[in-house]
Amino acid sequence: MTATAEPEVGKARRRKEDARLITGATRWTDNLQLTGMLHMAVLRSPVAHARITSIDVTEAVKMPGVLVALTGQDLAAEQGSLPCAWPITEDMLAPPAPSLAVDQVNFAGEAVALVVARSAAEAHDALAAIDVDYEDLPVVLDLDRAVEDDADLVHPDLGTNKSATWVFDSAEAGTGSDVDQAIADAEVVVERTFRQQRLIPAFMEPRSVVVDPSPGSVTMWSSTQVPHILRWMLSAVLGIPEQQIRVIAPDVGGGFGGKLQVTPEEVLTLLVARRLGKPVKWTESRTESMLSAHHGRDQVQRITISARRDGTVTGLKVDLLADMGAYLRLVSPGVPILGAFMFNAIYKFPAYRFTCTNVFTNKVPTDAYRGAGRPEATFAIERIMDELAAELGVDPLELREQNWIRHEEFPFTTVAGLTYDSGNYEAATARAKELFGYDALRAEQVERRANGDPVQLGVGISTYTEMCGLAPSRVLGALRYAAGGWEHAAIRMLPTGKVELITGTSPHGQGHVTAWSQIVADRLGVAFEDVEVLHGDTRVSHRGMDSYGSRSLAVGGVAVVLAADKVLAKARTVAAHLMEVAEDDVEFTAGTFSVRGTSTTMALGDVVVAAHVAHNLPDGVEPGLDAEATFDPENFSYPHGTHLCATEVDTETGAVKIRSYVCVDDVGKVVNPLIVEGQVHGGLAQGIAQALYEEAVHDEYGTLTTATLADYLLPSAVDLPHFTTDRTETPATSNPLGVKGVGEAGTIASTPAVVNSIVDAVRHMGVSEVEMPCTPMRVWKAIHGRGDGVPTTPGAGGGLGSIDARGGAE
Amino acid sequence: MRISVTVDGVEYRDDVEPRTLLVHYLRERLGKTGTVVGCDTSNCGACTVHLDGHSVKSCAVLAVQANDREVTTIEGIARDGQLHPVQEAFHQNHALQCGFCTPGMIMQAIDLLADNPDPDEDEVRHGLEGNLCRCTGYQNIVRAVRDAAQKMSPGSGPEAERVDETAVVDRAPMHAGGGE
Ligand code: FES
Ligand code: FES
User: Fold this and answer.
1) CA torsion, points A772, A294, A539, A569, in degrees to nearest 10?
2) For ligand 1, what atom is nearest to the CA of residue B60?
3) Which of A8, A18, A712 to mutate to test the interface with B (most CBs of B within 10 A)?
4) What is the pTM of this model?
5) Domain 2Fe-2S ferredoxin-type spans what residues (chain B) (predicted)?
6) ipTM computed for the complex
7) B140 is in which domain, residue-wise?
8) In CATH, what class is A18-24+486-631?
């Protein structure tokens, strides 16, 4: 066993994961071929709201290769209802959520029948032979309309489209004063309504499920972020004893929250495999994915901010309508609630009230998408801070500085009741301004305005924070979330000195194998190469809460540290025994135990062997050095940063070009700077895409018109700028690694920076809002056709390569 | 229909349905699962392979169209156990996260560098426009392609697709780690 010379943590290690990913030696779920494997295809409703009056599968069953065709009626007795693990209020309304619709469809894309055949092609061919009669029901799409008293209802049995209303009031909670009073007393009040358009997570690997049933046990491979939660929920929904279910998440091609789900197709694949006694595979097409995998965002946000003339903010009131779509999926209701704690952001509001009503519509269910609730909150607060600055006639950065928590004020308890442990907004902002050339860009802006340049320059700011590292279990309990937020790790010390680390996190691109190896290498003084990280199989990693909410490092990584410390504690006892000294005299550095004040040493590897063979152990000490630990954080972690975006807006065409994007993020201590930078880049791309390109658009019948990658505008390499990224480092005080989490930061911060920049470019032309995505048409209309009623649904976009129209090229 | 096609240097003769897409033939018949499917509208590029040395989206080509032709996939570009310089550059520059887009990106990048051995940033971005990545924001992919261009010069073309010495040395940590 070699001692590592320089610390592994902090090193830009190239990833271990890459070896198979760059050579094509991958293990995607859809790669699996099992003997006798059958293929399932799913028929989806073309209509958004209808009663199913009849389904005829007789022709389909006669098609070549078909074994069975099933409807919701066939499975009604066994399919149960898909789980919702986050009933946010005691009186929350939740309709039954069958995997296969039984007598009514509630969104276009909902599964209504399935075929199992010998090949995927035969299964798909047979779908066309299924005859379904629908009797149309009124379609509910618009959020504002859905909550009116005489609205048509998605689920008439519920008597309303409102699922639940959740309120946080700082006066009631004792964390602040009364916001209505603050607004009534205010010298300045600004009100805005923002729209968070509906987005599609659009992970690149389409979802896939393989189920191998055998009597007494069932194995499911699924392209999921949450194998542990999935196993638990499958057991709960279907009544299969949990110990008889094994879930494996092999290589998973991205998730972004989109694979944080218990899906209808997972349930259905399991049911048909069990019924037929054969392995069954289901792999979705991209269009199916867009039509049926959960969407994200989709809120109407009414924001009121109050302030004194001198710029001091005095109150913030947030009223949300959040679109749940047709059903409540795994954590749908809780997503907007996660935002409740983030609207006040980094600012010292004395009074705050948050109200959110979750609303059913005839659309694809919404659920977690990168940031989940926090991008929505950050967008609204960062946008309204700019509006307030405009109202007051001050520089938006100065207004922020005047109101943010100063670095010497940490730890700081906010008006939403969270305690931010650490941060330094001044430092991140100073660095960002320097990299950006803030003052020079402002000067150019003035000049372009004076010259009446057809291309105007805008500067957009986002000084965000987020709560991540989900989460302290007791807080989740208080929020009525059904599960905990701890994470587990186990270490197996092998007799050859190599190490197996088992983690309960479930990476799907984040590089945990590499980062966890670095942590273990440092802690135990073993070589980075000698650590094998195992995950994503409930037989191997039996305890875990999986990966989402930027929790893996801040919670799961800390569990790794704690497990390693347990290994060392026991190793120290054994080493002291073998070296015949008192334990207190034994020190451990870089993989070696030594006796203080002597030259006697013993390598950890030798202690491992001694503990393994157990020939000479102290009385009462069990053989072996394996250890496990579960970490439940006491607080969230609070990454923050300053993002600055300069856009050039062509006032004649509405085209927007990002000229410069600078972000300085403070994610605490960093285990691997290369991986952190990659996470920031990817986050920025998704946040910028919300600002400029992406939107799930429905027509008046509730049909998703952006159900392909030709219509839903995922940015390509030409649509995104070069990012300038840097970091400041204020360690988190809530965990021994000092880490904060980075997965969602870029997405949370970037959207408002871009939109603020666009509005800033043309504010002097009377523009105070451009709805997202800020397409050339919307920007042009905001400049030229104010009051014309800028359309909220522009229809499907121009497809890839339409960079000229979108102006996104660098 | 009977086809004869050389894939990654091995000749295969198979009966295929006329409607079978090349990507499905590769994945399901030949087990070449390194090449993946990301969409159904030929927009994502995840399925990119080389057909007679030029990149194609294998979801937009029928298997029968590959008859008597040569296909190279991500599984066929390493030589003698040594990674292709573009593979190596993707590793060194952290140009992948989940890795689902990676095979297509690498195959497209190789094609791009064959046409333009020293592309600037903008040329790389345009050259990869038909390949979508949801994870990386493209910055490190662009960096990797330009890095590979450096490593592969002077003298591009098929010969330069072979790996150079430095790249092999640099690769050590990955192999020592052995992957997951
Ligand atoms: S699979 Fe998307 S382009 Fe071929
Ligand atoms: S690395 Fe995940 S899609 Fe590109």
Assistant:
1) 30
2) 4
3) A18
4) 0.94
5) 1-77
6) 0.95
7) 85-152
8) alpha beta
